[in-house]
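Catalogue entry: protein

Sequence with per-residue tokens
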Amino acid sequence: WCGFLRSLLVSLRMAGLRVDFGLLLEPLGFIKVLEWIFSIFAFATCGGFQGETTLLVSCKGVVNKTVTAAFAYPFRLNTVVFSAPDPKRCGGTWTDVYLVGNFSSSAQFFVTLAVLAFLYCIAALVVYIGYKHVYQQNSKFPLTDLAITVVTAFLWLVSTFSWATALADIKMSTGASVIPGIESCKAPGTTCRFASVTSMKTLNVSVVFGLLNMVLWGGNIWFVYKDTNLHNQSKRISQTP
């Protein structure tokens, strides 16, 4: 990769900049713009999320006291603790209560891929717009673009389904099902009721954008492939009697 990048920079420097926005009107460039935009929405909707789970606790000297547990990206829920109902912690019966689960690997995988895809789209668009002549004349560039597109499409598939599974578990770990696992709520004279949890619509949207990115990158494989020698060779073979 280092050698290829070095040769790419040398080639671009020698070829010179020729700004041409014409490729953006073609499927190859237009889809790359959509990939760039959708990658922004993917990491913004997931990485920028903040929420909290709220319970109503009644215990010694406390009636329907609101306790909250604030959580956010990267969703290490096992480090998130509920606030105590009162300074006396229900007469000593309330202990620190944590949410369950660590979903940081799936969330960070998804967001990291979105950021890398965003950066690659910028680099590709610079080449498409300013160095189209180099891209079309040097067979290595389309082949490299094809390889990266195939790998990225596959990673979108893996990361999106991994994140969707993690999101379902996050909803379980922050919903009403948390109460049966809280030992302090089982103490004599103590009752806990689930109040609310922050809406996760933006996280649902992040999964949708993950699927859209997967479709875009998968569909773009064909348009990148058409610019490679592999397509030209197969075309010549099919035309040979």
In short: The chain has one domain: 21-233. Confidence is low (pLDDT under 50) at residues 233-241. The two ends are 40 Å apart (CA to CA). The longest strand covers residues 62-72.
